[in-house]
Design brief:
TIM Barrel, 2 domains, 10 helices, 16% strand, globular, binds adenosine monophosphate, binds manganese (II) ion
């Protein structure tokens, strides 16, 4: 088992635990090196660092940036970033500015389908209104009895083609990679196995083009062992890592005890050929 978990969320974005609770849970479950990677925000990192020091584990400063690439939404994780870097901070702020507007459009669209009052409800689940996202809508819609769980709300209402889905222009791939580089971080393509084209997985040709562009813009890593990948996908993305000379990352993508596929710190080992992303910062401090 790996004792690195380099992808998870706190209440600062769409997780359910505070940074302190999240770090405590990770430490309890045997994680030695944890990256907090909230969506489009770094506001939880200071609190997480304090908790990590108390528990004697290492915290890696991280972020997960929402990106629009062609017609797809993809996520880029920045690891070992300087959260105070002005270019990164301003870039993330620009993404957050768009979230409330999208939320209003989502609420209007759901209202037209007969589901009213969801924006106020969803906002109750967001610790920061700027970070309002689909998960907060889903939690409220479960509370209001529209579906039995968050997953069903996504499937019925919040994915492409459903009444609550509103397409949105996130950051450009090039900008996200520029901000991460400016902040001294390592850019990692998050959960490549999760990207879709309509209802189908993103095709191989498109994924190869994405990887080519990602690498040419300075991307350095790819998530191989992810809470949202199946074991055959670990092997598949280890092959892509080798082909594109990318470092391999691993993370649970934990959002909360009730909602996640995988808990913190429960990640199987990498396939043998993988070069772990932490060789990059561990050689720098060795
Ligand atoms: P947003 O950035 O507001 O569009 O929300 C994206 C977040 O929604 C992801 O980070 C996941 O936490 C969650 N999510 C996306 N798709 C699903 C799904 N099918 N089931 C459950 N959660 C999902
Ligand atoms: Mn999320
Ligand atoms: Mn993601
Ligand atoms: Mn995530």
């Amino acid at each position: 088992m790996l004792d690195y978990d380099l992808h998870c969320h706190s209440r600062v974005s769409d997780g359910t635990l505070t940074p302190t609770e999240l770090v405590a849970r990770a430490a309890e479950r045997g994680v030695k090196v944890l990256a907090l990677t909230d969506h489009d925000d770094v506001a939880g990192l200071a609190e997480a660092a304090q908790a990590a020091a108390q528990h004697g584990i290492q915290l890696i400063n991280g972020v997960e940036i929402s990106v629009s690439w062609r017609k797809h939404t993809v996520h880029i994780v920045g690891l070992h970033i300087d959260p105070a870097n002005p270019a990164l901070a301003e870039g993330l702020r620009s993404i957050r500015r768009g979230r409330m507007h999208r939320a209003e459009l989502m609420a209007e669209s759901l209202a037209r389908s007969g589901i009213g009052g969801v924006l106020d409800g969803a906002l109750r689940y967001a610790s920061n209104p700027e970070m309002i996202g689909r998960t907060h809508f889903a939690r409220y819609m479960v509370e209001a009895g529209h579906c039995k769980d968050v997953r069903s709300v996504f499937n019925r209402y919040l994915v492409k083609g459903k009444p609550g889905y509103v397409s949105h222009e996130w950051a450009a791939l090039e900008d996200a990679l520029t901000w991460i580089r400016a902040a001294g971080g390592i850019a990692v393509l998050a959960h490549p196995g999760r990207y879709t084209a309509g209802r189908k997985p993103m095709g191989r040709t498109t994924l190869l083009e994405l990887l080519q562009e990602f690498v040419s813009l300075g991307g350095k890593g790819i998530e191989v062992v992810s809470g949202s990948h199946t074991p055959p996908q670990f092997a598949e993305f280890a092959r892509y890592a080798k082909e594109f000379d990318l470092l391999c990352s691993c993370g649970s993508d934990f959002h909360g005890p009730e909602e996640s596929y995988r808990d913190l710190g429960r990640l199987p080992d990498f396939p043998l050929e993988c070069v772990p992303v932490w060789t990059e910062w561990e050689k720098a401090t060795a």
